[in-house]
Amino acid sequence: MRNNVFTNPAVENAVTSEYKIGNTIYKVVTKFNFGGENLKEILSRLIKKEAQKAA
């Protein structure tokens, strides 16, 4: 499996990863939204979500 990661200058705050599995190449675009929640809010939300699942 080949894994190439590069930033996409056409899309702000985006990272494109390229994976080759067998003869097929998969391109995955990951976009980051820094204008929304900060890290503390994201972690708090995820912890609450996992706690509700466990209950």
Task: Describe the fold and architecture.
The chain has 55 residues and is of the alpha+beta class. The chain has one helix spanning 39-54; strands at 2-7, 14-21, 24-31. It has a three-stranded antiparallel beta sheet with strand order 1-2-3, with no helix packed on it. It is flat and about 45 Å long. It starts with a strand and ends with a helix.
Give structural attributes.
55 residues, alpha+beta, 3-stranded antiparallel sheet, 40% strand
Task: Kindly summarize this structure in a few lines.
The chain is α+β, with helices and mostly antiparallel strands and 55 residues long.
- Main pleated-sheet profile: 3 strands, antiparallel
Helix-strand pattern: EEEH
Which class best fits the helix and strand makeup?
alpha+beta
Cα(first) to Cα(last) distance is 39 Å
Describe the global form: flat
